[in-house]
Amino acid sequence: MLDAALALFMEQGYDDTTIQQVAAAAGVAIQTVYFTFGNKAGLLSQVQDRVVLGNVPSELWAEQPWAAELRSETDPRKLLDLFVEVDSQIKARVSPFIARLGAALPNDTSQAAGRDARRDIFFGTVIDRLHQLGALRLGLSRDRALDVLRVVNSLEAYVELTERRGWSGEEWRAWLGRVLRAELLATTS
Fold first, then answer.
1. H helix and E strand count, the chain
2. Residue 128, beta-bridge partner list
3. Is the Cα torsion angle 156, 158, 162, 167 positive or negative in sign?
4. What pLDDT, on a 0 to 100 scale, did the predictor assign at position 46?
5. Which residues share a beta bridge with 136?
6. What is the DSSP track for 15-49?
7. pLDDT tens, position by position, 104-140
8. pLDDT digits (tens, 9 = 90+) for 159-176
9. Sign of the CA dihedral 128, 133, 136, 140?
10. CA 119: distance to chain centroid?
């Protein structure tokens, strides 16, 4: 149902997609869609959540194989490279979704706070690992390192450079990696 809804939302937009169309595309009864998601807004919310990782709910990110690699990597540069790769894949999935459906997404403060909290847990995993390795730049606290990561690696920056300025995904990843190494890592890392 989620795959069918995503395809229809991306093709037709939120307003022009009906629950009946989603049910037909998924091969289920319309009541099944309503029973599972409550309404179209609930369906959109679940679709948005799935877009983050591409195949599983975003709250299961810590169970992904790459998350275990992030938690166990001992080389700070490799850790940042892995983070940049994974996060760039997420941004590549999320940015077209937001561009197409952003206006339809619920934008209340509790939703935004939830998204920010999930992002900070993910980003915090990387910062905490760098801290555990003693790899953070001298004088850089965990909170300040997290602030740097939030600002430099925002979805807005990704969209600006890759979609508006024409950077390739490879150029984005190389640039972000250089900036994060310069801003976060101790000179001996």
1. 10, 0
2. none
3. positive
4. 84
5. 185
6. TT--HHHHHHHHTS-HHHHHHHHSSHHHHHHHHHH
7. 776 656 666 777 888 899 999 999 999 999 999 999 9
8. 999 999 999 999 999 999
9. positive
10. 7
